[in-house]
Request: fold
Amino acid sequence: MSRWEPNTRERLLDAALDLFGERGYDSVTVAEITERAGLTKRTFFRHFSDKREVLFAGQELLSRIFAEAIADAPASATPMEAIAAALTAATAPFGPQRRERARQVKAVVAGHRDLHERELLKLATLRAAMADALRARGVPDPTAGLAAEIGGLAFTTGFARWIAPGSERAFTELVREALDELVAATTTLG
Amino acid sequence: MSRWEPNTRERLLDAALDLFGERGYDSVTVAEITERAGLTKRTFFRHFSDKREVLFAGQELLSRIFAEAIADAPASATPMEAIAAALTAATAPFGPQRRERARQVKAVVAGHRDLHERELLKLATLRAAMADALRARGVPDPTAGLAAEIGGLAFTTGFARWIAPGSERAFTELVREALDELVAATTTLG
Reply:
């Protein structure tokens, strides 16, 4: 990021989400986003490969954070402890100021089939990253795959609760709670 | 299906898979598939919306079979018993004669990013169908979501073993075994 364009990524994101909310995702162009942000198209494409990636770019970073936190968990950590550490690491940066933006992203994605599909794919990538990181720690299958699925469910459940209307609790607290509930639910499967 | 075109769907499927294997998925046209099958394009489009759906059309049916089997499980069935019944119902039609075709489909899908993404989406649909069917039986979340994830993992794991080189065991036997392993693995999460 250049010194003379502070917070460009944030400004592009805010401009895009405002425009998507005002006029609908489909009708908004990259040129309009950059105009609203007071930046150039060239700057836009230094941050995002296309308009759609404004909504999903953060998920690449998320997969990396998950994988690294699992790798960095103490050798003595159980699979669920490693997943819990990853959920904490991945959600800790999402303070209350990020909640409203997350709600805006979700509203755009939910109303659009292609975007919803893209989100499902990113979640599949996230689960695969977790499973691979667990296998690299020596966790065998099917435990590694199962732990990753539970981690993915805890993340989406916690996220839904975090962005729910009126929600005020921290994202990290909500994903950890969802994880605890899922682990408890493993005894109710019959 | 018209009386004078017996097994049209199967003939189209065989022709398409043979051509995909010979020349690669991308370069094969619907016209070539219908020519190889000795049928018209109009007949093709009565069975499949496009070339890609030749590879995935069966998965829609699969979601329906899963959901119906879960709905039809005895009222006393636990979530896992309902999932087990669904896995049995969904895989029972896949006898040894279907295994080679499944291998061909998998080979085409694995070599093609767009097709792989489509497969992940169909799997997400399958899991959602199972979770919804469990909720309709009164299974609460997070148990319903968790049971559906485990059912999805059992299905993909059993499928991978079924189409593995040299594999001779029945698909149903392999998915049920994978399910048992996953349920056992719930105690190894820590």
Summary: Residues 25 and 111 of chain A are 9 Å apart (CA to CA). Chain A has two domains: 1-51, 55-188. Residues 55-188 of chain A form a domain with the Tetracycline Repressor; domain 2 fold (CATH 1.10.357.10). Chain A has a mean pLDDT of 92.
